[in-house]
Each structure stands twice: as C-alpha cells, then as structure tokens.
Design goal:
GO molecular function: DNA binding; DNA-binding transcription factor activity
Family: Belongs to the LysR transcriptional regulatory family.
Strand content: 15-25%
Helix content: 40-55%
Keywords: DNA-binding, Transcription, Transcription regulation
Oligomer: single chain
Structural class: alpha/beta
CATH topology of the largest domain: D-Maltodextrin-Binding Protein, domain 2
CATH class of the largest domain: Alpha Beta
Protein name: Probable transcriptional regulator
InterPro entries: HTH-type_LysR_regulators (IPR050950), LysR_HTH_N (IPR000847), LysR_subst-bd (IPR005119), WH-like_DNA-bd_sf (IPR036388), WH_DNA-bd_sf (IPR036390)
Amino acid sequence: MNVSIKQLRGFIAIAETGSFAEASERLYISQPALSIAIGKLEDTVGGLLFNRSTRSVQLTPEGLEFLPIAQRLIADWSEAFDDLNRLFSLKRGKLTVAAMPSFASTRLPAIVAEYQQQFPNITIAVQDIVMEQAIDAVQTGRADLGITFEPDNLQGQQFESLFTDRFVAVIPMSHALSGRTKIQFRQLLNDTLIVLNRGSSTRRWTDQLIQKTGVLRMPLLEAFQLTTVGAMVAAGVGVAVVPALCQQQMESLGAYCCDISGDTIERRVGVLSNRRYPLSTAATQMLALLRGIPAHK
C-alpha cells in the first residue's frame, strides 16, 4: 500500500478544518491538488474517508476511526526525523569506546572530559578491557571504537595509528639497577621476569624479545593484570617490561621505571573501527579528539 505523507497531512487538515479550501490554505497547496491527493488516498484504502456536500465535508465512520491513527503516524514521523536531526547535531546519542586499561586509565580520561564538554548530551560508555577483548568488541559491533596496540591480524577492521609506545623496564626501588636512566633488556634476565598470562599480545611480544636474546631458560612469574605486575615488582618479587603508557601507574605502585636501550618492544597505539559499518557522527567526533593527543605525556 503506497500512502504518502502528503496525503496523510491533507487528510488530517481537512478533518480538522472541515473544509478543502481552508485545508489547502493551511498546507500551502491548491485546492485541486489537495482533492486529487485525497482521491488517490481513498482509492488506495478502498473507500471514502469524507462525505462531501456543497456545504460541508464530514468524516465517514471509517475516516473518523482512521483520524487518530493518521495523527499518530504524522507525530511519529516528525519525531523520528527530529531524533535523527538530534543524532547528527549531537544533541543526543550514545558512544561506546573499548580501550585497553593502559590507555583507559592514562590518556582517555582527559579526552572523555573534553568530549563531554563539547557534546554534553551524548552518553559515553567506556569498556576498559584487555586488548583482545577490545578488538572483539569492535569486530562484533559492541563498541564503536577500540583503542589498542596495533593487532597482528586486523580481521577486517581498520586501524589508525595515534602514536608509538616503547616498552620500559620496571624494577624494584632496591634493585642494583635502580637509578639508571637506561638499561639493556638482557640485564633484566638475571632476575625473575614478571609477565602477563599466555594468550595476551603483550606476553607474546615479551616472549619474542626473550628469544632474540638467546636465553633459553629463565624464571618467569605470570600475572593477569598489569597492576599486579607493578605491585609484584615493587615488592621485590622480580622485574618486568611494560608499555610506557603504564609508567606513571608503575611508579605510583612503588616501582622504578627506566628506558631500555637496544632491543625492546615498540608497538603503535591507535584506533580500531569496523570496516563494515560507517562511523556515527558521535564516533567521528571522538576520533577527531583522539587524533589530537600527543605522542608522549
């Protein structure tokens, strides 16, 4: 059934004014054009909606029953386009960002604060989850944007680099190397190396760096969270290598951080989006803010 919004508005105007002439003036169309539109509407629905006479126009019983339905349809139509306009003008909407904890707890809060100041009516959901889960959230459409290290396999996603993060050494304050500005990764292998659990990208990159040194066996201690890694190092359990993004967090836990000279881990940090779905206006504005963050802080 092909009924136009013009026909519905014409029907409502005639019903409310009781006159084709007054309705045509309200709608800024000619009376013949309005008559043709209503005639086509009646042909489409299969019966008369108005009883017409030379003196008056009255709704038929069917027209009287249809009037509130038509009024609701027009209201829903207008509301739908008002909502769409508010989405494009960022007067309402929702944005979900999945970010690895090392970014979510350091760089992201300032970005979110600036975003809220510019677009106070957008609801923001931040998922601070491990890199692998953030990648999955974007891939499955549960997050609009993901902020992670560059994945080894993009799996149909798009990655835009923001900056490069160089991993740093984390050692106890009481360690013999504490106080140095740079050390070599090999120097850490004399101690227990505290690493993230197998299956994480950070663990895989750490294992690759160990292999490059040629050291076949060394004591390892596994943890599931970088916070635990830092706390273990601060307690003197061992040493670690972590993203420079986490340096402030490691130091707040009581560990000492310094740069690694020579071989280390360097990975690009950036924004993931799903190639299959265009970004919403809300997500596009968040991406614009993320592009402006400095490489080091």
